[in-house]
């Protein structure tokens, strides 16, 4: 997937515990853990906005697009 989730990095930089963020945002610790690992297929804008407000960051600090490089095809 070309979207990388940097939430764990932001949490560490801000010295915020996942449990505290999950409680503030109103999601379970398990769902926040899945989000941190990039194992979700989507995130609600409302949830993303609450995370950004709590961590004082922008969505682009949490989500990063990295182009997937296709393997060359043999001739």
From TrEMBL:
Residues 19-62 form the HTH cro/C1-type domain. Pfam families: HTH_26. SUPFAM superfamilies: lambda repressor-like DNA-binding domains (SSF47413). InterPro entries: Cro/C1-type_HTH, Lambda_DNA-bd_dom_sf. This is Helix-turn-helix transcriptional regulator.
């Amino acid at each position: 997937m070309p979207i990388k989730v940097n939430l764990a990095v932001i949490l560490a930089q801000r010295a915020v515990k996942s449990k505290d963020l999950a409680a503030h945002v109103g999601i379970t610790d398990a769902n926040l853990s899945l989000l941190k690992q990039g194992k979700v297929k989507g995130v609600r804008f409302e949830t993303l906005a609450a995370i950004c407000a709590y961590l004082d960051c922008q969505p682009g600090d949490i989500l990063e697009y990295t182009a997937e490089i296709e393997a060359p095809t043999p001739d």
